């Protein structure tokens, strides 16, 4: 059987298998064409900016009417949401730009820098809230206009929940780290509003007048926890962390779908915003001609690109059985 016929059969098998792998394709980097990913991330970040501004203004008015520390905590959180959403709004547009001669790997890591900026905002906001809480301890006061405040906050909860659902869909489609950071903000904001309602109710309708300040303190702690979660996501991309084991096995399976491929070695992967960079070595039969080896490499690229349309792929053919390792030994991944 010729190399070309083997490639065609392998491509067909990989495509058929991939149809049954649809649930695993969601929320992973490189699984969507960059242009399609850009359309989704641009729309969802624009929506997040608009809702963030609306809720920040609404909570500022509400804080002026109630004087609640819990509402102030939620207001600070919404301001952070808005600035973080603006950072994501800019980052996803910059990350979708095409590579140029100076930046051959593209601009995808702009999303990670956006996440770092969000972490800084969250930490600053958390310590500001802790300062406010400490200032109010021992100086408790009843919350005014508590009934209308609770109604307004419930409306904001509904808006935030709707946005989180939309962001979750966008993440499932694109795997965007910038949108993940935004969603973490708004999930925290959703919980913040719930805690604030509880704090206002306890401070107004029970003898627990200190509950409002306690809610503010809990929100400050929650903000710091959120910062750690987003920082871990950003760190992984900025430091070129490998894709998870399932994704790497998927890439290896696609590469091995051709019978002429004896082994896949030195596989390296890294995500950068909407893009994915993959490089590997394929061990091939040493009797194959250069043209046949080239066709096998092209078939492998097509199979991987079908599953990872945003992938940039570099494959090095290598004669099977040759023990020579190429490149700097410091970066060999045989121990991985």
From TrEMBL:
Residues 48-236 form the Cation efflux protein transmembrane domain. It comes from Litorimonas cladophorae. Keywords: Cell membrane, Membrane, Transmembrane, Transmembrane helix, Transport. SUPFAM superfamilies: Cation efflux protein cytoplasmic domain-like (SSF160240), Cation efflux protein transmembrane domain-like (SSF161111). This is Cation transporter. One of its GO terms (molecular function) is cadmium ion transmembrane transporter activity. Residues 1-34 are annotated as: Disordered. Pfam families: Cation_efflux, ZT_dimer. Residues 245-319 form the Cation efflux protein cytoplasmic domain. Residues 1-15 have a biased composition (Polar residues). Coiled coil: none annotated. The chain crosses the membrane at residues 44-63, 69-92, 113-130, 150-170, 190-208, 214-235.
């Amino acid at each position: 059987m010729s190399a070309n016929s083997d490639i065609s059969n392998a491509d067909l098998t990989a495509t058929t298998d991939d149809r049954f792998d649809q649930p695993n394709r969601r929320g992973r980097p490189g699984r969507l064409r960059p242009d399609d990913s850009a359309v989704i991330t641009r729309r969802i970040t624009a929506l997040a900016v608009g809702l963030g501004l609306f809720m920040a203004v609404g909570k500022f008015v509400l804080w002026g009417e109630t004087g609640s520390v819990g509402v102030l905590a939620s207001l600070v959180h919404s301001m952070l949401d808005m600035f973080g959403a603006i950072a994501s709004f800019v980052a996803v547009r910059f990350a979708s730009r095409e590579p140029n001669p100076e930046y051959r790997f593209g601009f995808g890591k702009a999303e990670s820098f956006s996440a770092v900026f969000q972490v800084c905002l969250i930490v600053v906001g958390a310590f500001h809230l802790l300062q406010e809480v400490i200032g109010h301890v021992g100086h408790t006061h009843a919350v005014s206009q508590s009934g209308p405040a609770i109604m307004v906050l419930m409306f904001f909860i509904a808006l935030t929940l709707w946005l989180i659902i939309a962001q979750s869909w966008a993440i499932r489609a694109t795997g965007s780290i910038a949108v993940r950071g935004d969603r973490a903000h708004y999930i925290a904001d959703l919980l913040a509003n719930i805690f604030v309602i509880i704090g206002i109710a306890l401070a107004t309708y029970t003898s627990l007048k200190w509950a409002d300040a306690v809610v503010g303190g809990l929100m400050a702690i929650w903000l710091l926890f959120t910062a750690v979660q987003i920082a871990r996501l950003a760190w992984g991309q900025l430091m070129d962390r490998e894709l998870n084991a399932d994704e790497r096995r998927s890439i290896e399976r696609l590469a091995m779908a051709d019978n002429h491929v004896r082994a896949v070695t030195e596989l390296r992967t890294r995500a950068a915003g909407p893009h994915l960079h993959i490089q590997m070595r394929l061990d091939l039969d040493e009797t194959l001609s250069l043209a046949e080896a080239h066709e096998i490499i092209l078939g492998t690229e097509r199979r991987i690109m079908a599953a990872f349309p945003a992938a940039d792929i570099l494959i090095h053919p290598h004669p099977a059985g040759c023990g020579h390792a190429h490149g700097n030994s410091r970066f060999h991944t045989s121990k991985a």
